[in-house]
Amino acid sequence: MDRSRLERRLRTSGVLVLAGLAVELATLFSSRPTAFLLFIFPGSVLLLIGIVMFLLSLLTAEENTKPE
Amino acid sequence: MVTWTSLIVAIIAISIVLVSLIVVRPSITVGKGGKILAFVSLLVFPALSGGAGISEHMERSKRTEFCLSCHTMADHGKSLHVDDPSFLAAAHYQNNRVPRDHACFTCHTDYTMFGGFKAKLRGLRHVYVQYLGKVPDQIALYSPYNNRECLHCHQGARSFEEGATHNAEPGRLEQIKVNNLSCNSAGCHETVHGIDKLGDAKFWNEVREDGPK
Predict the structure, then answer these.
(1) What is the mean pLDDT of chain B?
(2) pLDDT digit string (tens) for A28-56?
(3) Whether pLDDT at A62 is above 80
(4) 3-state secondary structure of B212
(5) Is B46 close to A10, i.e. CB distance below 8 A?
(6) So what's the ipTM on this one?
(7) Within an 8 Å CB–CB cutoff, is residue A5 touching chain B?
(8) Burial class (CB in 10 A: 0-12, 13-18, 19+), B67
(9) Counting runs of H as helices and runs of E as strands, what totals does chain B give?
(10) What global pTM score does this model have?
(11) What is the pLDDT of residues B126-142, one digit of tens each?
């Protein structure tokens, strides 16, 4: 994988993780059931997608840099 | 003093700073140090934040104020303050037989997300009904109340094991213990929340450290 593509993927996963963290922070101070649900969805889901995307970008980067 | 919530906020804040660095300048991940930074920023800290957040929300959802935050549960909250010892929930709440800040969860341990898969689905349905559906006039348990919830505390207690009514006939105590004879049977502890009797009830003014409620 070329460097710019990898950086683009890192940036996308970073944005997803940031969005998840923002939701988590916003719901952390509320003791209402809706806050809990918002924390799970979209909060945790965004975090999870961001993390998985980061791991996938690492895997594909590794594959593409293996010697022939 | 450092509280658990402030610790979680600190973890989230650090995560936000680290992830922002990667988002603004992804080129810093070229070197070995940058790769480690990306790993910590995009995996370790977010996972830590998510886990700590879930743990905090799960603990918070066991609190009485969480359960009573839905308008639907207002009468159940009110029933805890009835000035009549025959109201089972009120007697438990007012005499600290259950922790007041975890009053609902102590007696309903298998409810919504703390129960099985079906209970979790019901919990989601409750949220749907609360905001988009029609709340039923009368709220009832999905299945008869299980004595197991009472026995968490009462089993082994002298007042329960040697209680005259519990031993009024041979085998009755055993029937109660195996849930064949409900603690809430007619003539026993039948008034639990007594929602239908709240209209005529007198209420106890809870005295708290910060003054009467």
Answers:
(1) 91
(2) 999 888 898 899 989 999 999 999 999 99
(3) no
(4) strand
(5) no
(6) 0.89
(7) no
(8) buried
(9) 11, 2
(10) 0.83
(11) 888 888 888 888 888 88
Q: Are A18 and B23 in contact (CB under 8 A)?
A: yes
The position carrying tokens 């209420």 is: B203
Within an 8 Å CB–CB cutoff, is residue B12 touching chain A? Answer: yes
Contact of A21 with chain B, judged by CB distance below 8 Å, is answered with yes
Beta-carbon separation of B47 and A51 below 8 A: yes
- Contact, B8 vs B42, CB < 8 A? no
Is the CB of residue A7 less than 8 Å from the CB of residue B29?
yes
What span, in angstroms and rounded, lies between the C-alpha atoms of A45 and A47? Answer: 5
Return left, alpha or beta for B208; rule: phi > 0 is left, psi -120 to 50 is alpha, else beta: beta
**To the nearest whole angstrom, how far is the Cα of B93 from the nearest Cα of chain A?**
21
Residue B100, pLDDT above cutoff 80 = yes
Q: How many CA atoms lie within 13 A of B51 on its CB side?
A: 6
Give percent helix, percent strand, percent coil of chain B, each to the nearest 5. Answer: 60, 5, 40
Type of residue at B213: K
B207 phi, psi to nearest 5 deg = -100, 125
**Does A44 sit within 8 Å of B19, measured CB to CB?**
no
As a whole number of angstroms, the distance between CA A12 and CA A53 comes to 8
* Whether the predicted pLDDT of B68 surpasses 60: yes
